[in-house]
Amino acid sequence: MAMEALFNAGSNSLFTPIQSHKVTTFLPFRTSDSLPFSSQSKSQSWISLKVRDLTPLVGSKKRALKCMSSDGGESLEKGVRRKNLAVFVSGGGSNFRAVHQATVSGDVHGNFVVLVTNKHDCGGANYAREKGIPVIIFPTMKGKPEGLSANDLVVALSKYKIDFILLAGYLKLIPSELIRAYPKSILNIHPSLLPAFGGKGYYGTKVHKAVIASGVRYSGPTIHFVDENYDTGRILAQRIVPVLANDTVEELAARVLRQEHKMYAEVAAAVCEERVIWREDGVPIIQSKANPNHYS
């Protein structure tokens, strides 16, 4: 049985709450900009769409929900400890800076304790040094004897007691040794709505150029768990950004990046507060902090 879903196009929201199937379900779908090819209005507009019955998501024996913390616990508890975070960067690290600022302000219940980079002098690495965060070079670089091998990196990170790894513009493929050492604990942010415009070679402005050339009307960032391939891990969160008729690559990139900064901080907060729920079918969703009965 199909249900009505109302999408609010007047504001911006990361999460789509899912309530009990016994009541009407509303999915507020918000964007920071006006819809493409239309004038912006101060009043909220609602778009009515048909969606499949969401009953299997909640309350189903076939898809029971389990809360999996970093140490395998199955229940959310008050007073969870602050998490130790590692970040991997290859460039300026603007997403890293955004999440780091959220840790300092207290919005994210974690601390960055180490940064890993393949470029010794990149902006993200220099920012980390300014903040007193240790920097590790990986992988080994020609002429840079301080670079580590994959196994050495696993050993080095274990000394920092890392709970989660956040990739923020890191352009190297994550080695299988690291994925095995940190299962369901490595996140990446990508500037398109995966699985579209993802994979090897799709990064930075190349993504936005391909999006505009394709003629799609919507883009936006995706946060996903990392597996052995580029951009194929389980999707955790997405945010919609309209592609306007006269967009340049730079304009679209800037609009998507603003949402990346907000979304990564919000998802990092959920991860550190142990609000990531893994359904039995392997799909990760996020438990609302304000209402534990809502998921997104």
From TrEMBL:
Residue spans crossing the bilayer: none
Enzyme kind, highest EC tier: transferase
Top-level division of the source organism's lineage: Eukaryota
Keyword Protein biosynthesis: no
Pfam families attached to this UniProt entry: Formyl_trans_N
Subcellular location field: Plastid, Chloroplast
Segments forming domain Formyl transferase N-terminal: 83-267
Main location: plastid
InterPro entries on file: Formyl_transf_N (IPR002376), Formyl_transf_N_sf (IPR036477), GART (IPR004607), GART_AS (IPR001555)
EC assignment: 2.1.2.2
PROSITE patterns in UniProt: GART
GO biological process, alphabetically ordered: 'de novo' IMP biosynthetic process
This protein's pathway: Purine metabolism; IMP biosynthesis via de novo pathway; N(2)-formyl-N(1)-(5-phospho-D-ribosyl)glycinamide from N(1)-(5-phospho-D-ribosyl)glycinamide (10-formyl THF route): step 1/1
CC per GO annotation: chloroplast
HAMAP family: PurN
Homology family: Belongs to the GART family.
Name listed for the protein in its UniProt record: Phosphoribosylglycinamide formyltransferase, chloroplastic
Organism annotation: Deinandra increscens subsp. villosa
